[in-house]
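Per reviewer request, we include the raw input and output of the structure prediction for the construct analysed in the revised manuscript.
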Amino acid sequence: MRYFGFLILILVLSSPVIGQESIQMGQTHNISSKFLNEERGIQVYLPKGYKVTDKQYPTLYILDGQWYFFNGVAIQESMRGEYLLPEMIVVGVLMDRPGRNETLNQHWDEFKNFIQLELVPFVDKKFRTTQENILFGWENAGFMACELILDKESVFDGAIASNGAYIDDNMLQPFDSLNEERYLFLANSTKDIYTVSYSDQAAQFLEDTKSDNLIWEYRQFNDETHEALTNVSLYHGLKFYYSNFASLTFSSIDEFNAVGGIPYVESYFKARGERFHLPTEVDEGTKNTLIWMAWKQDQFEAFDLLMKEFSDVLETKRYASAYWQNRLAQFYLKNHAFEDAIKHFEQGITKYPEEKYLAKMYRGLGQAYFGLGQKKLARSKYKQAIKKAQENDDPDLEKYQSELKSLG
């Protein structure tokens, strides 16, 4: 293909830059390849829960695993859960020099066939995979990532091409005849004088042709160099592919309202669930965060709406304490929503009678009933607050006593 000249140039320019040593971790396997006519080594990382569950996992394939396998593993380990990215199996394809250069220069098609027809089937058979596959390639292996993601018979759903890319009509037109979406993330830096022009050209071609099936993004990380970009591009490439995997977060209630409020949140989780085979309901984390944010930013109208819309989350363990019932009730009280305040104060007192909160909650009931014009009941609750304050040496005792006198 036309970009083989680019490959040779990159191979020559980059040869002195990267060392030859490789460090092993995870499981090591050798695959006998009929296409390469040799055994090819791979490293495999399994999520920590792999051995104690029957869960299936997506797979991240890293070309040049001898250098970048650790990057993929580090991302998995540092996430410590599934808040931004799912846990993944990571497969590093070992490509030590000088064999790497020879393979990518002289045995391009054979290596492609090895990846698609031997490596991926081997991993799917040996490990519990979802058969959702993402490919990472750096430099001239980034060219291969582009070609593989646009292959009509591709086994990959997404690709990350760092420090090198190439796309033309011969690749894109057959792909566009398919009725399926795939994802491509291109990354480079203006400081990478060897390869940035190729990434620029690929991005410009995609911009001009407007593929219907390819969801893509090109980002330049201009603080990074040719050798250093991989850490950044792999992380951001995975975030791009899993852009609607995480729970929703907002910086403010104004932002929440600007994107569409609750209807937007519900549609997000519906699309997220359908794409990743997850529950389609809004998750507890998002509900809790929105309620907390409305309270923290003193947005009572939004707080009241969210408390009613997401009332089911109030029955979860998070709110099963006097601390939370008092906190919610106090915010209602501050905004003169007296009946809602009373409901939460009473729940706190009857369900979670923690001594250090009882005086506060009885006093809150007194204030709420006074706000409703029920002075007799208000005085009764204040007296209970004073009693609890006396029993627990509450420093606010005198304040409660003064407030009771002011009720008349």
